[in-house]
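Hi there, hope your week has been kind to you so far. Please have a think about how the structure follows from the sequence. I've dropped the whole record in just underneath, so have a look:

_____
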Amino acid sequence: GLRWVGEIAMAEFTEIPVLDLAPLTNGGDKTQLTIDFANAYGNTGFGYIINHGVDPKLRKSIFAASKQFHTLSEAQKQAIALDKNHRGYIAINTSTDVNSDLADVTKPNQSTSFMMMREDEFARSDVYLSGPNQWPALKGFQDVCEAYAEAMTELAHKLMRLALDAIDVREQGILEAFDTPTIWLRLLHYPPQPPQAAEDLYGSAPHKDFGCLTLLAQDDVGGLQVQTPAGKWVDVPPREDAFILNVGDMLHRMSNGKLLSTPHRVINTSGRERYSVPFFFDPNISTIVAPLPGTGAPKFDPLNFGDFLRAELGASYDAHQADQSSRK
């Protein structure tokens, strides 16, 4: 079932493809993997990745750290409330996907989370989102978060290289923009949604990720759904030790539309609490994002990633509203 969008045939899908990253982690022949990647992200925009080389123990420890954080009292969490550098605690009902053109989103996302980012050796006040992380007073918490972020960064580097190979881009210069990447590690907690909840009450409203790559670890509760070109919602059931990898809008632009940024949402009707850990991997804040050489006539205008983020975060998060108004 193909649906034509503009001049592109969009393939309808019913399940999420699985990519075996063994060749990437053991240095084997990557030819088939590159083709599989091009198919998965040219048609679906989402995939499971297995044999990714990340220690399952590390994954268990990040979920344990997340639960530990989310059981703190509201006052303890509010002590590190999200700051203008986008680090710290994001309380429930303080983030709304108002920029969503995918749903009429009026109610804030039903989730709470902890956010950390990469720390520059010298946090510079003149660089947008540059600053120190805010840590809760939890023994070992910072170490686990930093170790997990490091493992994810290493994996994401390899996946960016694979993505460029998949679209036949030889211009490796763009990878330098990821040497000092913009990274976001988010420890999310979704409370159970009441069974009679309003139609438009979402754990996470329908949205596309705005960055390059998202690596998601989810627990066994489920609730993530991906939208097909025809507008159907396909479940992305949990798979033990697999990550869910998806492409965001910036990589969609860099690939000149070849790699898809697909809408997705979370509805937690399980009656249980849901924990998930997305890791977002983006270029340096100063990067000019534009279709890469070799991808054909550019379909997107270049944009400055930092400027784009300022608008995006300012629209979606209460903590950034003040930052916006002080600049207007």
About this structure: The first strand starts at residue 2 and ends at 5. The CA atoms of residues 220 and 239 lie 8 Å apart. The first helix runs from residue 22 to 26. Residues 96-100, 323-328 have pLDDT under 50 and may be disordered.
